[in-house]
Every structure is written in structure tokens, then in C-alpha cells.
Amino acid sequence: MLIIRHREVAGLLNGHEKEVIDLVADAYQRHDEGRTSLPHSVFLRFPDRPRDRIIGLPGYLGASTDSRADGSSDEVAGMKWISSFPGNVEAGTERASAAILLNSLKNGHPEALIEGSLISAQRTAASAALGARLLLGARKPSGVTLIGTGVINREILRFLAVEQPELSGLAVYDQDLKRAKRFTAQNARLLPNAKVRHCTSLKEALGAHDLISFATTAGTPYTDLETCSPSTVVLHISLRDLTVPAVLASHNVVDDPGHVLRERTSLHLAEEETGRHDFIDASIGALLRGTARLTPDPGRPLVYSPFGLGVLDLALARYVRDTARRGGIGTLIDGFLPTSAPH
């Protein structure tokens, strides 16, 4: 068993944002082509602690059509087990923690255990940056507004700085203004030429720029998009911020309808209220492959709501594992499995 710790994962991923975005785009395309197996995520909740949860994301990402130089396959199978305990933030620790287990496709044996919080955050951020690229098209946004100032929006800002380096404005809104200012003090360097603005209300934040990223811990919808500028692109990463009317008034792109229309997401609530889901315009995999097109109405918001597919985590975990093996990084544990079958 190969154990890869957080600092080792960070060393292998940091500075490789473009490669991570390419890995995520490739995983989306394979999923759209039907070369994945992706059961629904399993949500473990606690009766007396409704804010806390642990999610299991099993999956299989099939091999690419292009052969690898060394003749090996790039298929991968495994599971991410990720917790979200929002109270951790108040205690000074990270909200989310995760582990990813990869299994051999020759014999099913577990072969790598990888600390997964950074992989999870970066695959989410890469997905957001990819969504922004597709929904913006040739448009150049004036800047970006971040709703929520946690780890996810920090990584989204990092990846947007690579995808949209011309961004000239950064607006930030958090219910805790001190936290928002601490966030910009630590992370505004990612967009060194952007003018920073701390918004004192959500309404102000929504009207600040035509590219918005929601990454909050909201459990129920609380806002519309009426104060946004026309044709704003909304990265609805936390999935439960927008009201049903806001969803229905927007163009909606998702990663997988069968996954996002559950677990009380804003889109799930819209489906329950209307009895239909034709408000979803396209999936990101189909847009990437060119099998779907998005022709937005002028003035209508464009909302990207990715549920978060486990195959993205597996694609990055495979990259981390393979790179670690080549570089002799990580800790090999002998004797983790039985050495022989019982008689």
C-alpha cells in the first residue's frame, strides 16, 4: 500500500493548474462518452447535527482512447470519503477532510491511500474554471465576485487567475467581513492587477461583476439573481444558494443531470416544484465534445451547477499516484494485505 500525505500531494499538484484543468476536462468527456461507472454519492448524516456530513463517492474512469507511451492503461477505480464539518472553521481547522482509496484493476486490491482534501478542492476549482471558459465563450469578464471565502473559493480564484488572467476586479462577500478581509489579504496576490472590493451586502456583491462564484455552506436557497448584470455567468458550486425562480429564469449547465437532481440542490427543488427538468440546457461533457450547443438568450444568467463527480477525484488521484511512484514519493506499507489466501 502506498500512502501519500497532504504535503506530498500539494507538492505534486501546486503549479500544475493547466494540467489539472486538462485532466478534469478529459474525465468529463470520458463520462459523456459512457466510459465511466458512477454510482450515486452516499451521504452519511447525523440526526442531531444537521450541518455535518460525510460523503462517499465511488467510481470508475475508463481508459482513454489514446494509448500511453509506456503501454499502460490510464483507467482507475476507487472511492473518495470526504467529510464536511462547518463548525471546524470556527475552531480554526479546515471544514473538509478527505481520503481517496485507489484499487488495482488487476485484482481489486487497495493499492494507494491518498490524502484527498487538496485533490477535492482543486478538481472542484478546475471544474469551475472550465465552466467559466465554456459559458463565457469569447466574452472577457470585468472581474469576478466570490460569495464565500473558504478553501474552495480560494482554489477557484487560483484557477481563474490561470484561465482568465485579464480579470481586473475582485469583489468578495462573506457574512463575516473580517474573514473576507483576511481572505483578500492572503489571496489577492493571485490576481495582482485586480482592484479589490469588499462588499457589505449580497445585493452589492451580485451586481459587482459579470462572473460570480458561490462556494458557501448554505443548506437551503436564499437568493435570486435579479441584481446581476445581464448575461452574468454564475458558478453555482455550492449548489443550494439559488432559489427555484432563479434557476428557472437562467440557462443551466450541469455535470450530470442524474446526480445534480438530488440531495435537495436548487435544481432538485426546481424539478420537484415543476415536475420537469427541461430547464437544464446541457452537460459540460457534451459541450466539451461538441455534441451539445448552448445558445443563450441575451440578458439571461448562465448558471453552472456541478454536483461533483467522483471520477474527477479519481483522475487527479491517479495522476498523483503515478507521479509519486515515478519520483519515489510517499510511504510504502508492507503487509497491509494477507500474504496468501486462507486454506
From TrEMBL:
The keyword Ribosomal protein does not apply. Keywords: Lyase. Its EC number is 4.3.1.12. GO terms for molecular function: ornithine cyclodeaminase activity; oxidoreductase activity, acting on the CH-NH2 group of donors, NAD or NADP as acceptor. The keyword Lyase applies. Pfam families: OCD_Mu_crystall. One of its GO terms (cellular component) is cytoplasm. GO terms for biological process: siderophore biosynthetic process. Gene3D superfamilies: NAD(P)-binding Rossmann-like Domain, ornithine cyclodeaminase, domain 1. PANTHER family: KETIMINE REDUCTASE MU-CRYSTALLIN. NCBIfam families: dehyd_SbnB_fam (TIGR03944). This is Ornithine cyclodeaminase. It comes from Streptomyces zagrosensis.
